[in-house]
Structures are given as structure tokens and as C-alpha cells.
Specification:
This is Fenitrothion hydrolase. It is built from 18 helices and three strands. By secondary structure, the chain is an all-alpha fold. The protein has one domain. Strands 1-3-2 form a three-stranded antiparallel sheet, with no helix packed on it. A hairpin with a 5-residue loop joins strand 2 and strand 3. The protein is globular. It starts with about 25 loop residues before the first helix and ends with a helix.
Length: about 450
């Protein structure tokens, strides 16, 4: 990370270590692989046809369902978001360019990590509270222009979102001085300008498909226990039901590759050997880190596509079918990406998420205590090393288990029985590789 990055102000993403694991590292890896293989064999024999139905789910009580759909709840959420955004903009424009400014914590912790965790719990919340979506709608109303009117037809799929997410992870993980106010002003200004231009040209679909943070929230929101059944009613469901509703579309593979590759690189970049190599390399550090980050993105996409290619060959299917199959199984990487995200960002969210309140109370750096939180001391009960190490290990293993089941469900849906079972073997090899790599990155010395 850059010397002035947000991570210099907070504890490492994972404060646990190999010595803090509740069982030996080798035993953890063996247990994780055994769980994956047993699950693969079990579902291969027992899960012979699609089981995840859109009508599944435990219906919520009518009163709770009405509250979730109510205008007052959505209005309250938008109002709270607007207050936080305006408060942060004051600090961005007029606050001090120092560690006392809350803007880096709001952007890199509350927004980036908090949005991810909130979406996994409650669904695609950014679509509801996105202030730029609201601004776009307000401008159309003022101009008395139909919200359905567009200047150009949108055809790019999720590719702009993938590029936007990749750019933001580069900013968070690599960019120099990424917490300085001039840098953040440029970052926020550029994003607002691109969003308004994109929505002006393509309409509301820009936010649905191209906005990186709406797509980030929507994909992770598929794991939420809250969701709508096919009859439109609210219900409780498994994470697999949400992921199974996602169908392949242009740019989906690239987007999930960025989601998974970014957290993998984040853990890798914390390795002491890597840091030493970067410092001693004749190449510029930023260039070397950037190439490596893009390499992680590419590695995820290539391994997934190779697994699909080999799967089609084993199933005696045409090679061209691999392009469709890779889009079909790409959603199975979302639980894995979510597991990596929890593993890498848990301690950052818990600790810095609390500490941000002590910064937000004084947005202008004048010594004020507008929120009464200046003396807040973050509670470290949830970032004890052994607890964090356990959360990291469990989240990675559970994410991969959910990924195996999600991939199997899609395979038996789009392929015949024989092709589905045989075709998943290469994907299982990829899952094992991801699991071992993820655990090694986190816990190996």
C-alpha cells in the first residue's frame, strides 16, 4: 500500500495469523479440502435435478413485508444517506488535508466495505439509496423529460461496472496518496461526472448495468437472506436461491473476476516476501503492483474459462459451448468472492468503522464535537486475533462450499445429467486451487 493509504491508519484487514488459528494450518487445509470433496461427491449423487425454485422461501409476516415496501422506510434510508453524503462533502471540500479528515474512512470503509456487508445482509440497498440515481431522476423531473427517454441504446452489459470496480480497487490498494484531499476530490468529481454523463446518454439502465457500486451491491445482495419469491412476496431464502436467479450476461465473468481477484491480491500484497520484492525491484513499484493486480483479475477469468473448456470436452460437447457455460457458472464465484471479502475486511470494518465516528464529529478539523463522539474508543472485542482468524477461515471455506453447490445447480439446470457430473470435475479442481490459495495467502508465514 501507499505510505499515506487508508490502511496506514487502521489495523491490517486480518489481524489474525497462522499462530492464532484454533487448529494447525495443515489440518485446516486438509479439513477444508475434505469438506469440498465430500460435498462434491454427495451432491453429485444426491442432487440429480434442479432443486432451487423461485417459489421457495419462508414468507415474511405481512406487517414486515409492508414495512419493507413502504415509502417511509425508503425515504428514511435516502434521507440518512443524503445527510451522510452532504456531511462528507463538507469535509471533502473544506476539511483539513490530514489524518483528522473523515473522508477516507467514509469512502474506503463505510462506503466500500459497509456497502458490501450491508448488501449481503439486506440485498441491493445501493439501488434504493444511490444519491446519483436520485439526482438524475430529479433533474429529469425539473426538465420535464420522461425517465424512459434515452439518447443512445445501451449495449455494453456489465463491462463498464467491471472496469469501474477494477479502477476503484486499484485506487484503494495501489494508488499513491489515495487519502489526500486533492486525490479524493478528483476521484469523487470524476465519478460524479461520468455517472451523470452516462445516465444522460443511456438513461436509468446506466445505473442498473454500468454503475460499479450498484452492480457490486446487486451481486453481493444476491446472497442476502431477504428476497422476493416469483409471486413478488418477501421471504427468507438461502444464499443459493439468490445466486441462482442470476443469468449469464455480457461482462459478468469480468465483473466476478475483479470481485474475487481484488481481495486475493489484497491478501497477497500483505505478504512480507512480496513487499521485499517490490522494494528491491528495478521496476517502479506502482507499475509492478498494477500489473500484478491485473494479473490476479486475469487469473480468475482464465482459470474459470479453462475449467469450462475442459468441462465441455469431457462431456463431449462442442468447444463453442464453453463460452455459454462459463457465463452460466460465473455466478458460483460470487459466494467465494464474498467469503474472501469477509476474511479480508472484517477487522477493518469493525475497528475503523467505529473509529470513523470520532472523525465525523469534526468534519472541518476545528476541534468541534458536533456528534458527541470525539471521545469514542473503538471496542476491540470482535477483532481479537483468534476470533478474526476463525472468521477468516470459516468465511473462505463456507464461500467455496456454497460455490460448489451453486455451480452444481446451474450445471444440472443447463446440462444433461452425465455432462453435469463429469463437467464439474475441472471446476472442482479450480475450487480446490482457490481454497488452498486463499488459506495460504491468509495464514501461511
Amino acid at each position: 500500500m501507499a505510505p499515506h493509504s487508508v490502511h496506514a491508519l487502521v489495523p491490517a484487514h486480518g489481524v489474525g495469523s497462522r499462530s492464532d488459528l484454533p487448529l494447525p494450518f495443515t489440518a485446516l487445509v486438509i479439513g477444508a479440502l475434505a469438506a469440498l470433496l465430500i460435498s462434491f461427491l454427495a451432491i453429485g449423487f444426491l442432487w440429480r435435478e434442479p432443486r432451487l425454485r423461485p417459489s421457495d422461501g419462508i414468507l415474511l409476516p405481512d406487517a414486515l413485508a409492508r414495512a419493507l415496501d413502504s415509502r417511509w422506510l425508503r425515504g428514511l434510508a435516502r434521507a440518512v444517506t443524503a445527510v451522510i453524503v452532504l456531511w462528507t462533502l463538507v469535509a471533502l471540500v473544506a476539511g483539513p488535508d490530514s489524518a483528522r479528515n473523515p473522508v477516507p474512512s467514509v469512502i474506503y470503509v463505510w462506503f466500500w466495505v459497509g456497502l458490501a456487508f450491508g448488501s449481503m445482509l439486506f440485498g441491493p440497498i445501493w439501488r434504493v439509496v444511490n444519491p446519483l440515481r436520485a439526482l438524475h431522476a430529479g433533474l429529469l423531473r425539473l426538465a420535464r423529460v420522461s425517465p424512459d427517454l434515452v439518447a443512445l441504446q445501451y449495449r455494453a452489459g456489465l463491462w463498464p461496472a467491471a472496469l469501474g470496480l477494477g479502477a476503484f480497487t486499484w485506487v484503494e490498494l495501489i494508488a499513491e496518496d489515495n487519502t489526500s484531499l486533492p486525490f479524493l476530490r478528483l476521484l469523487v468529481g470524476a465519478f460524479v461526472a461520468i455517472s451523470l454523463l452516462g445516465s444522460a446518454l443511456f438513461g436509468r439502465v446506466w445505473f442498473d448495468e454500468a454503475d460499479p457500486f450498484e452492480v457490486w451491491s446487486r451481486l453481493l445482495g444476491l446472497l442476502s437472506p431477504l428476497g422476493r419469491r416469483d409471486d413478488g412476496r418477501w421471504g427468507l431464502r438461502t444464499p443459493l436461491h439468490g445466486v441462482n436467479t442470476l443469468r449469464g450476461q455480457r461482462g459478468l465473468v469480468a465483473t466476478v473476476a475483479v470481485m474475487l481477484g481484488s481481495t486475493a491480491y489484497d491478501g497477497f500484497s500483505a505478504n512480507l516476501s512480496w513487499a521485499t520484492f517490490v522494494q528491491t525491484s528495478p521496476l517502479p513499484a506502482t507499475l509492478l503492483k498494477t500489473v500484478t493486480l491485473v494479473g490476479f483479475f486475469a487469473a480468475v477469468a482464465v482459470t474459470l474459462w479453462l475449467a469450462a473448456l475442459v468441462s465441455m470436452r469431457l462431456a463431449d460437447r462442442p468447444v463453442r459451448d464453453s463460452f455459454d457455460f462459463v457465463s452460466d457458472i460465473a455466478p458460483s464465484l460470487i459466494p467465494i468472492a464474498a467469503g474472501y471479502l469477509v476474511a479480508h475486511y472484517w477487522s477493518l470494518w469493525v475497528y475503523q468503522g467505529q473509529l470513523a465516528w470520532t472523525l465525523m464529529t469534526d468534519p472541518l478539523g476545528t476541534g468541534a464535537d458536533l456528534l458527541g463522539t470525539a471521545g469514542l474508543t473503538p471496542d476491540d472485542a470482535l477483532i481479537q486475533p483468534t476470533l478474526v482468524a476463525t472468521i477468516q477461515a470459516v468465511s473462505i471455506v463456507v464461500g467455496h462450499l456454497l460455490g460448489v453447490v451453486a455451480a452444481h445447480e446451474r450445471a444440472v439446470t443447463v446440462l444433461d445429467r452425465r455432462s453435469a457430473v463429469i463437467g464439474q470435475i475441472p471446476l472442482m479442481v479450480v475450487m480446490v486451487f482457490y481454497t488452498v490459495s486463499g488459506l495460504t495467502i491468509l495464514f501461511a508465514p
